[in-house]
Amino acid sequence: MDKTTKIMLSLVLAGGISNLIDRLARGFIVDYIDINPMFQFPIFNIADIYIVFGWIILVIHTIKYTRKQIRRQSNA
Fold first, then answer.
1. What residue ranges do the domains of the chain occupy?
2. Catalytically annotated residue among 2, 22, 31, 34
3. How far is the C-alpha of 41 from the C-alpha of 29, rounded, in Å?
4. pTM above 0.70, yes or no
5. What are the tens digits of pLDDT across the range 24-72?
6. What distance lies between CA 17 and its chain's CA centroid?
7. Quick one: angle between helices 3-26 and 46-75, nearest 10?
């Protein structure tokens, strides 16, 4: 497993576990970051940010890996 995959998995798991702990301890997830005065956007928390960034890293990494594989096949 490469470094990028480890970072992505760490972010997604940290965010997911954090939200799970909130859900088990309180019965709901505490959301406290509100940017509605600037944008029409839902309230969220740091765990949600970790999950989203983890998935963004996964998508970017997958695209780069796929392009590299296509180049290798076309050069062979």
1. 3-75
2. 31
3. 17
4. yes
5. 999 999 998 888 777 788 889 999 999 999 999 999 999 999 999 999 9
6. 13
7. 150
Q: Are 12 and 51 in contact (CB under 8 A)?
A: yes
Told to judge if 48 belongs to the known catalytic residues of this protein, a careful annotator would answer yes
Sign of CA pseudo-dihedral 24, 55, 43, 35: positive
Average of per-residue pLDDT across 13-19? 96
Assess whether 2 carries a catalytic annotation. Answer: no
Return the pLDDT at 69. 93
Cross-strand pairs, 44: 33
Q: CB of 54 within 8 A of CB of 15?
A: yes
> What length is written for the chain?
76
Q: Please state, in angstroms and as integers, the Cα–Cα distance from residue 6 to each residue in 12, 35, 46, following that order.
A: 10, 30, 19
